[in-house]
C-alpha cells in the first residue's frame, strides 16, 4: 500500500488528508518509484484551491526524487535501483510510491542527494524557462525579481547573477533582504508597501528593467508594468498575492511598447526536448554550486503544514516532503 496525501475538496490546507491506496503494477512504458523527497511548489497550492483541477485520484504534486522499484514492459532507459527525479504531468507526487511514465525519469548523479534535487528541480526548470525561453538573460541585462527570497526567487537571482545580469529584488522584510543579497541580488527593495516602480526607476536611471518576473499577481502585476523599459518583457508567473485583475491591452502599448508573457512551466515540461534540456541544465547548475538546494523538510503527513507555511510567506526558500 502507498501512503498518499489526498484532497477532500478544493479549499484550504485542512482539505488535505492522509490515505492509503493499492497501486497496480506499472504498465508498459511506466516505472514504479519509491519516493524519498517530494518538492512543494505554489502550483500545488493552486491545485488544492481548485485553480488547476486535479485528476480523479485528487493527489497534488508535480515533482519528486526516489529509487526505481519496478519497471513495466518496453522500459530500457532506467532499471530497478536507479535513483531518479521527475517533474511535470501526470500530477500526483504526494505519495510514498507511484507509477509514472518512464520518459519522465532523469537519472541522478551520486553526488547529488534526493533532498537537494527535490528542493530545486521544478523551480530550477521554471528558472531555466524564464531566463532562456521567455527572454535571453545575460551580461548587460537588468531584471526585476519579486519575492526574491522565495524558493523560485532565490534560484532566479542566483542563476541570473551567474549569467552576468544586474538583479533587482523585492522582499517583504529585512531578514528576507539578507537572504536575497546572499543569493546575489545587487539591489533589494524592502517592504510590502514599497513604491518599487519609483525605486526601480531611480536604480535604472529612469530606463526601467529589461525583464520583470512577477509571481505575486493581484495588484502588483499592474504596478510591475511600470518597471519595464520600452520593448521589455513582464513575465506573470503566479498569483500568490491574489487573482490578477483584467488588464487592458492599452496598458501594454503602444505608449509603453512592452510585452506580457504568461508562461506555464507545465506546458514547457510537456515538450520532451525542452524538459530534458532544462533538467540536465538544472542538475549541472546544482553540481556547479550555482543553484542551492537547502530546502526545509516536512514529513509527508505534514503536507498541510507545509502548504500553510508556503502560502503565508512564513517560509524562505524551498520546501519539500521527506518520505
Question: Could you please describe the fold and organization of this structure?
Answer:
The protein has 2 domains: 2-120 and 266-322, Medium-chain alcohol dehydrogenases, catalytic domain (Quinone Oxidoreductase, Chain A, domain 1, Alpha-Beta Complex), CATH 3.90.180.10; 139-261, Rossmann fold (3-Layer(aba) Sandwich). It is globular and about 60 Å long. It is an alpha/beta fold and 323 residues long. The longest helix has 21 residues, at 114-134. Helix 2 packs across helix 3 and helix 2 crosses helix 8. The strands form 3 sheets. Strands 3, 4, 5, 6, 7, 14 and 15 form a 7-stranded mixed beta sheet that branches. Strands 10-9-8-11-12-13 form a 6-stranded parallel beta sheet, sandwiched between helices. Strands 1-2 form a two-stranded antiparallel sheet. It has 9 helices and 15 strands.
Amino acid at each position: 500500500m502507498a501512503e498518499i496525501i489526498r484532497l477532500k475538496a478544493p479549499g484550504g490546507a485542512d482539505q488535505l488528508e492522509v490515505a492509503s491506496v493499492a497501486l497496480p503494477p506499472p504498465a508498459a512504458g511506466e516505472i514504479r518509484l519509491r519516493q524519498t523527497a517530494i518538492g512543494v511548489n505554489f502550483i500545488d497550492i493552486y491545485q488544492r484551491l481548485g485553480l488547476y483541477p486535479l485528476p480523479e485520484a485528487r493527489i497534488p504534486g508535480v515533482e519528486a526524487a526516489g529509487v526505481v522499484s519496478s519497471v513495466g514492459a518496453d522500459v530500457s532507459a532506467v532499471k530497478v535501483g536507479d535513483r531518479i527525479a521527475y517533474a511535470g504531468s501526470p500530477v500526483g507526487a504526494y505519495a510514498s510510491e507511484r507509477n509514472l511514465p518512464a520518459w519522465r525519469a532523469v537519472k541522478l548523479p551520486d553526488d547529488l542527494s534526493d533532498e537537494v534535487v527535490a528542493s530545486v528541480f521544478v523551480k530550477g526548470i521554471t528558472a531555466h524557462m524564464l531566463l532562456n525561453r521567455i527572454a535571453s538573460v545575460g551580461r548587460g541585462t537588468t531584471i526585476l525579481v519579486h519575492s526574491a527570497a522565495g524558493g523560485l526567487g532565490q534560484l532566479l537571482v542566483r542563476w541570473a547573477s551567474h549569467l552576468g545580469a544586474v538583479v533587482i529584488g523585492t522582499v517583504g522584510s529585512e531578514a528576507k533582504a539578507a537572504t536575497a543579497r546572499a543569493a546575489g541580488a545587487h539591489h533589494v527593495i524592502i517592504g510590502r508597501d514599497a513604491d518599487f516602480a519609483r525605486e526601480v526607476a531611480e536604480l535604472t536611471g529612469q530606463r526601467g528593467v529589461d525583464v520583470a518576473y512577477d509571481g505575486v499577481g493581484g495588484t502588483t502585476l499592474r504596478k510591475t508594468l511600470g518597471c519595464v523599459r520600452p520593448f521589455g518583457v513582464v513575465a506573470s508567473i503566479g498569483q500568490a498575492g491574489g487573482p490578477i485583475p483584467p488588464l487592458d491591452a492599452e496598458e501594454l502599448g503602444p505608449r509603453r511598447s512592452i510585452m506580457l508573457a504568461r508562461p506555464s512551466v507545465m506546458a514547457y515540461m510537456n515538450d520532451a526536448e525542452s524538459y530534458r534540456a532544462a533538467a540536465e541544465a538544472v542538475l549541472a547548475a546544482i553540481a556547479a554550486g550555482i543553484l542551492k538546494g537547502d530546502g526545509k523538510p516536512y514529513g509527508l503527513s505534514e503536507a498541510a503544514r507545509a502548504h500553510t507555511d508556503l502560502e503565508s510567506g512564513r517560509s524562505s526558500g524551498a520546501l519539500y516532503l521527506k518520505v
